[in-house]
Model the fold of this input.
Amino acid sequence: MTRSAIWLGVLLIWILPCNTSRGDLLFEFGVGDVIMSDIEIPVPGATVPIQVYLSQTGTTTILSDEGLAFAGVRVTFDDPTIAAVLSDTNIQENPAFDLDSPPFFPEKEVTGTTAELIVGVDDIFSPVFADSNGRVLLGEFTFTGLSLGSTNIRAEILDAGGLDYIISGTGVELDGLITPASATLTVTPEPGSVALSLVALGGAAVVGVYRSRRKRRKTSTEDPSVVAG
Done:
């Protein structure tokens, strides 16, 4: 049986009973393996690699017990003029998912406001299991800062063609159990420019005080009834 035929069988499998409920699984964003909901890009032109995980919560252990054989995730960014994934070369899958060419669809795709990743294992009987934190790394999306400001980013199930996209190692479809992730991505000013701005503001304040005192002294000289400050 060919690999494509095996995966076709998995995608069309009868949904098996599953004792997890919605919210037990969720997407999460991370930077440097630390889960984050507020992420910064230091200056326009800089980049930040953002990991996307599928995580289990509470008492759910399906990713630890059964593993993950297949997953599709879509990352959206509200304002691509502030920060964006610029091309599919800025998406790197977790190499533990070794399926080179999933049937029917590409592995990576970037549009104006979305970046998509599809991962799977070559052998459906050798899935990727959760780490000690209960997370499975799907891949890494590198964002480039383009202008100062903030944009919201979101990770959700890749939904296209009516196919099931999140499948456990035992063939259980998990799409309906997953909560999307959201985060704020902010492109900040260069630290040197902030320091210069503070110096400029401080200088303007000093000049203002000096001019005010000079005016008051001049007034008191012209009119002795005015007490100089």
Notes: The domain at 3-187 is CATH 2.60.40.680 (Immunoglobulin-like).
